[in-house]
Amino acid sequence: MKIINRFIPFILLFILTGCNTAEGQVTEVRTFSGIDGVALLGSGDVDITLGNKEEITIHAPADLIPYLLTEKKDGTL
What we know:
Number of domains: 1
Distance between the termini: 59 Å
Strand order of the largest sheet: 1-2
Mean pLDDT: 81
Shape: rod-shaped
Order of helices and strands: HEE
Largest sheet: 2 strands, antiparallel
Number of helices: 1
């Protein structure tokens, strides 16, 4: 039992230092033209709003924005 009590602080230290906090949420707008459809690869939520603009608004942690790719291929975003 004494051995277990000695290792508990080290285990807690490893668990707590492994937790990363994400940067705050940011919004980025990307504009396109000639979009006929939308495809999502991976997990996420897509909300489609009809209007005059053809753009995508991304809400994500700041450190993930550079990894979110938006491509137009054959009219599909």
